[in-house]
Design goal:
With 389 residues, the protein is of the alpha/beta class. It has eleven helices and 17 strands.
Length: 389
């Protein structure tokens, strides 16, 4: 019997398996396919995301190093170069394969093509039935993403109506892309009610000689997506002198509300499976690594207890993740509402003149500032940002 089973070999699952094995636990990592297969993901990693890792990502899986952001609204670009690294961009298949390799190096047993069919728990262990047989462990980490079968089974149904849809497609450019991430504001909310006002937001991430164009929305795919992607293509074509779309867009669900239950007696949910995706941007890799780190810490403690309890996982998620996600849930509708009220030209012109706010945003992206300190810096400056000029 294993000490810990992890279902799902994406970034969250692999890093949780790595963290448990590093601390001496016997770990089995299950995946329904072969780790390193292509995923529908833009691949952006903020500096605060990579700071959550115990190791540095190798240069050979880094597609680009981002040193600035641009906002694009109605075809107009507002560029904010920083001169220093804020984020990196990877291909998810390369990142996943690397993290699985790190887990293997430290002793994790990896079983590929083992699709999970069902699972259950009793007072002493967890049992999982897969296409390759039954496996038992003292504890289970559920890291199957938004659509896996185990999270609902162990922790109940997630909140309904609190999901978005992500869309991504790779585009080849005629010139090398800038070392910036373009943020496309494609629609502006007229409501401050978060459940109804998740806006259609896009981003363009630089790769080696190409870019990944990604959009997030609460609407069904292939309705508004096609229009806004064509708008982004038009901007890119005008700036780079031509482009070629590589393949068809892919779509994937994004759970933008945390589950009401994050654990059962012997199982924890992490990453997208736990609903830990930013309701502002659709970004989930930061939460994937931080929840995996918290899960490993709690399971090492529980393994040493005669009567194990997993309650501390809730408090760790609240401390490191949930307050940030709640803040993002409030900030997103407010920001888009204000853009609708005052116009993007006025907003970004004011922002360009506020070096302190820009530097605070950069420090937050790099992981040098947390939500409380960022709020102390940013909130007093919002009146000037929205009401100046």
């Amino acid at each position: 019997m294993y000490d810990v089973m992890v279902s799902g070999a994406g970034p969250a699952g692999s890093y949780a398996a790595y963290g448990c094995a590093k601390r001496g636990l016997k770990v089995l990592l299950l995946d329904k396919g072969a780790p390193g297969r292509r995923k529908c993901c833009a691949g952006g990693l903020l500096g605060r995301t990579t700071k959550a890792l115990d190791f540095r990502l190798p240069d050979d899986i880094i597609e680009s190093r981002v040193r600035g952001f641009s906002f694009v609204a109605e075809g107009v670009r507002y560029s904010f170069p920083f001169g220093e690294e804020l984020a990196t961009v990877v291909r998810r298949e390369a990142l996943d394969a690397y993290l699985v390799g790190k887990a293997k190096e430290i002793g994790v047993e990896v079983l590929e093509d083992a699709k999970v069919m069902s699972g259950s728990e009793d007072g002493a262990k967890v049992m999982v039935i897969t296409t390759k047989g039954r496996f038992d462990a003292r504890f289970l980490v559920i890291a199957e993403g938004a659509a896996g079968p185990l999270a609902d089974s162990f922790c109940g149904k997630n909140q309904q109506g609190r999901a978005a849809m992500g869309c991504a497609v790779e585009v080849k450019l005629n010139q090398a892309p800038r070392d910036e991430i373009d943020l496309h504001l494609s629609s502006y909310s007229r409501s401050l009610r978060p459940p109804r006002s998740f806006p259609l937001t896009g981003a363009v991430f630089p790769l080696r000689g190409s870019v990944m164009v990604s959009f997030v929305d609460r609407k069904e795919p292939r309705t508004s997506y096609e229009r806004v992607m064509n708008d982004a293509f038009e901007v890119l074509e005008g700036e780079y002198g031509g482009l070629r779309v590589l393949g068809k867009p892919c779509y994937h669900p994004l759970p933008i509300a945390p589950r009401s239950r994050l654990h059962s007696r012997r199982a924890l949910v992490i990453g997208d499976a736990a609903g830990l995706v930013s309701p502002f941007s659709g970004e989930g890799l930061t939460s994937a690594f931080l929840s995996a780190k918290a899960a490993a810490e709690v399971l090492v403690e529980a393994h040493a207890q005669a009567k194990p309890r997993l309650d501390r996982y809730d408090s760790l998620c609240a401390k490191y993740l949930l307050h940030r996600l709640r803040a993002a849930g409030m900030l997103g509708p407010f920001m888009h509402y204000m853009v609708n009220v005052i116009g993007h030209q006025r907003l970004f012109s004011n922002l360009k003149e506020d070096d302190e706010l820009i530097n605070s945003c950069a420090a937050f992206a790099r992981g040098e500032m947390e939500i409380p300190d960022f709020a102390l810096k940013a909130v007093p400056r919002l009146p000037g940002l929205f009401l100046g000029h």
